[in-house]
Amino acid sequence: MTETVPVPMRKLMLLVGATSDIGHATALAYAQGGWDVILAARDAAAASRNAADLTARTGRPVPVLTLDITETTAFTAFVDGLPRLPDTVVSVVGLLGTQARAQSDLDDAALVMRSNFEGPSLLLGLFAERFAARGSGTLVGVSSVAGERGRASNYVYGAAKAGFTAFLSGLRNRLAASGIHVLTVKPGFVRTRMTAGMPLPKLLTAEPAEVGAAIFRGAEVSRRDVIYVRPVWVLVMAIIRAIPERVFKRLKL
Amino acid sequence: MSTDTQTIAGWGRYPRRVTRLIPVREEAAVAPLHRAETGLIARGNGRAYGDAALGDTTTLALGGLDRMIAFDPETGHLAVEAGVLLADIIDAFLPRGFFPAVVPGTRYVTVGGAIAADVHGKNHHGAGGFGAHVENLTLALPDGAVRTCGPDANADLFAATLGGMGLTGTILRATLRLRRVETGWIRQRTVAAADLDAAMQALEAANGSTYAVAWIDCLARGAARGRALVYRGEHATRADVADLAPDAPLNPPAGGGALAVPLDLPAFTLNRLSVGAFNALYYGRGRAGGNRETLVGWAPYFFPLDGIRDWNRIYGARGFLQHQCVIPKARSRAALAEILDRVAHAAPSFLAVLKLLGPGGGVMSFPLEGYTLTLDFPASPANLALLDSLDTIVRAAGGRLYLAKDARQSRDTFEAGYGDAAARFRALRRDLGATDRIASGLSRRLAL
Ligand SMILES: Cc1cc2nc3c(=O)[nH]c(=O)nc-3n(C[C@H](O)[C@H](O)[C@H](O)COP(=O)(O)OP(=O)(O)OC[C@H]3O[C@@H](n4cnc5c(N)ncnc54)[C@H](O)[C@@H]3O)c2cc1C
Ligand SMILES: NC(=O)c1ccc[n+]([C@@H]2O[C@H](COP(=O)([O-])OP(=O)(O)OC[C@H]3O[C@@H](n4cnc5c(N)ncnc54)[C@H](OP(=O)(O)O)[C@@H]3O)[C@@H](O)[C@H]2O)c1
Fold first, then answer.
1. Global ipTM
2. Stated pTM of the model
3. Buried b (16+ CB within 10 A) or exposed e, B25-55
4. Which of B106, B148, B375 to mutate to test the pocket of ligand 1 (most atoms within 8 A of CB)?
5. B65, B71, B96, B309: which to substitute to probe chain A, counting the most A Cβ within 10 Å?
6. Which CATH architecture has domain B185-412?
7. CATH of A12-248 among 3.30.2350.10, 3.40.50.1240, 3.30.420.40, 3.40.50.720
8. What is the pLDDT of residue B292?
């Protein structure tokens, strides 16, 4: 019998929400770090533009799968259908919506809640189960500073992100002893399609590439629990959290 | 789609222009904008110095078209969207043994911008311009039609688009031929030239080198006028690296970028004294180390200024002017001498680069067989007048100015330099229906 030398398999990252700019920058950071990447998006045709980019740059194939984060009943089959269980799963799925609409239209509000909280939480929760069974894995959820305090201008979105942040923190707490790592990302402002046309303060606004690099570093190198990308946000949010509610309720933020 | 009225400028921060700035996120968004808008121009990464990438009324910011499309390692053919930066191509492909066939002095230019200016590198004498290595490109025309063209298909449109400064339409994507390289090092030989004749001879003699360019001390006068350091370079092979720097990695890291010019420096930072002192030191050092071969990393070799972010702020808020002319070879010597004399007396130029160019590529491409001299000046009324007087010398010698650097040449200077080409280009713009629909500060100024 001849012995076959095992070929070391590249680590695998699954990106959920692969049409997002932050998502693509993250995929690029992983691909450049030598990882294999699988993309999942509800619009696989649109995501294939990003897959082609990664393939052209690295020479490695990048499969694209279809997944709608609101179709939670499809999750188990999706996870079972993966070529192999990823080492890391990153969810950047999110929906900002329009506050004015979300506060008066129940369906719209429900969609914002399901897209930012229910769907991403259930999916990462499912991967957590598989990772726990295997005994390894990293989960990354892109949440938001908007989840740290409800504001008139975006509290439906903010509340959903708050739920997601709490879910991730619970997962982290539960799995800390089992070697499974959970990273919560609160990127602050980022120049992407989501914020196109909004006036953004320069110092507080990151480029997608900065966020992508910070996610790769935080998840795979420095193994952080929570990152804000631009450090100045730690301070900004500490102040925002510290304002007493009786004052906060009168502020226009 | 979001739109925003803004004041924008080129790399020289002169002139400024108010325009709507429309960020483009995907190729499919461009054609409808061409149908809907008039007076618009494409903008890549804003590295053109003057008013070429400032829309007459509307500017399409194409940085979002930054995805690569496909690469064939057998042929070295790389298809990319037009907003991809040469920096990204180098990052992804140098480790895989490929390098852009032509690079300008900064890697932070887009492929669309490199085609639209048909940029030349230090290898122009042998390799031609950027456009000579484009397999094909896809263009959104003024009426919103989208057409692919190349040397063999729609060749007229292709030739007008190379060096056409965005005025034939918006390039959406292109396929480039990359060159194979074994390492990220350049084998450099520095030749000190004591005066202008010696500098020109050394550049002539360097014709067989892949890369050749000269730095000129433009403050040196009298017998030393035109003294220069001539840099010749070759892509180092693995064997070269093993020979010259056995411990070096095959791909040196880019480094740089860390240093930044944080604020606009006061205008007096670059005066005759500081430039003069720097030049004397620099020349002395180059001559002392002269004629030895050294290995230089690709980044400091091709892109020395990229190591300093936002260096254009060195000149302060008033902005600066770059004057780049090319003079036909037969008349180069006298015209260059006259220009250098004028500059040495009037105003110091921090940057002064001399290079021998080969024949041009596209209809409006800048290069012609002759010497190109590049000079930098702070924008001021006195310097604007100085540049007008340099133009007179250039015109008399049958030369022309590079549109990617230009912010101020007169229409007469332009007509004298580009004559027939400009007429052909205008006719083609008319046929395309581009004349008013696609317009920049540059096209308005020169009535293109
Ligand atoms: C430090 C420095 C060194 C340089 N060195 C050199 C050099 O050695 N050789 C050289 O040739 N040039 C050189 N340049 C000039 C530079 O290479 C050109 O101006 C180049 O066009 C800039 O590319 P960009 O993407 O920034 O384009 P922009 O500056 O944004 O635009 C330049 C022109 O290209 C057009 N354009 C941009 N994108 C498109 C598109 N997608 N479709 C159609 N038109 C488009 C614009 O309309 C405009 O006319 C240098 C510039 C700097 C700042
Ligand atoms: N940009 C910022 O300033 C900022 C700040 C803080 C947090 N964030 C968060 O960062 C993440 C990425 O956002 P972005 O800025 O890159 O904007 P984006 O491009 O709008 O990203 C949102 C992503 O979520 C996907 N998505 C939405 N609903 C989905 C669904 N039902 N099923 C599957 N995918 C769905 C979108 O896919 P489609 O392309 O199909 O719509 C898109 O890929 C989001 O979670 C966002 O909340 C962004």
1. 0.92
2. 0.94
3. bebebbbebbeebebbbbbbbbbbbbbbbbb
4. B106
5. B71
6. 2-Layer Sandwich (3.30)
7. 3.40.50.720
8. 73
